[in-house]
Amino acid sequence: MTYSVYTAILSAQTIVPWALPYAKKVTLSNTWPRHGKVTLKPFTEALTETEWRRFYECFRDPEIAEWNGSRPLKMPLWLFKRVVMGEVSRGDRLGFGILDEKGEWLGTVELYEMTRSEATLGILIGAKDRWGQGYGTDAVKAVLEYAFCTLGLQKVKLRTYKHNLRAQRAFEKAGFRHVPTPPVPTPRFNFGLAPKSEFVPMEITREEWECF
């Protein structure tokens, strides 16, 4: 699954270090979005140092970076924090940490490219020992309920890599459907090598979600 914060992180320039407030412990709030086994902690809440570290390390993992179509992160932790919080302050996205039943950090999910009627979803489960256990699907369901019921959006879209079948199955379990991929023009002189599409677009409307 493509995750938009990569763009900001990987294109960040040198910035003067700064301090961020840290929470001393994780207290799950009843007001945070939740579904099944997961609770979504808004990025507007202070993250613990452990949460920051787990968030940071998942971007440094070569396997996760490959699935995300990127490369392992090399910037220092302080700069990572600065870039993430800069993205949080933007008005066209909302980010959440994904916490399990015990409040442990599993990954992140966000709504970005937000308008009054729709948004694009991005998700990253950094805890590889939890892959294939339904945490990603629960996180997607939680953020969809927030998008449609709290934000009043009419559609949520996403883009995932064609080879990432596990992610596609998780999205289908949450109600997403595949949508046609726009045709890619064939170059006049391509010597028989037609371009291949890397991404698979999916989406779900509010009406489809209500009937799912």
Automatic annotation (TrEMBL):
SUPFAM superfamilies named in the record: Acyl-CoA N-acyltransferases (Nat)
Domain N-acetyltransferase stretches: 38-207
UniProt-recorded Gene Ontology molecular function terms: acyltransferase activity, transferring groups other than amino-acyl groups
Pfam annotation, one family: Acetyltransf_3
InterPro entries per the UniProt record, alphabetical: Acyl_CoA_acyltransferase, GNAT_dom
Transmembrane segments annotated in the record for this chain: none
Protein name, per record: Kanamycin resistance protein
Organism annotation: Meiothermus hypogaeus NBRC 106114
Classification of source organism: Bacteria, Thermotogati, Deinococcota, Deinococci, Thermales
